[in-house]
Design brief:
single chain, 132 residues, alpha/beta, 4-stranded parallel beta sheet, 4 strands, 41% helix, globular
Length: 132
Amino acid sequence: MFDRIARRYRLANSVMTLGRDRAWRRAAIRAAGLPPGGYLLDVGAGTGELAFTALQGDVRLHVAAVDSSLGMLAVGRRGDRTGRISWCCGDARRLPFRDGSFDAAVSGYLLRNVPDPLEVMREQVRVVRPGG
C-alpha cells in the first residue's frame, strides 16, 4: 500500500493534519535532544520528513532513515538534496544496526502501522545509546 501512495504521502499528511505535521516534526527533533553532529535513526521514515527536519537544525548530524517501503524510500532519496541521509530498507522489528549505535531514534506514524508497537519500541531502545 505504501509504495502506491508514496508520491502523494507528504501532501496527504499535510492535508490530514491541517499543516500541523511540520510543528510535530520540529517538536520531536527538539525532544530527541541530539548532540551537535550526533547520530539519529528515523524508523518508519517514509519519505524522510523527520530526517530532513533534523538536518535543518544541524547539518553535521548523521542520519539513517529506515522503512520497509522501497517506494517511500525512493521518494525520500529523490528529495535528499544534501546527500547526508543513509537510506535503508528494513524491518522496524529487526533493525540492521548494532546495539547503542544512535544518540536517538524517532518515528512519525510508524506505531499505527505495526501489529506489535511494544516490539518495535524495544528494538528502537536496543539501537539507542544508554541515556539516549
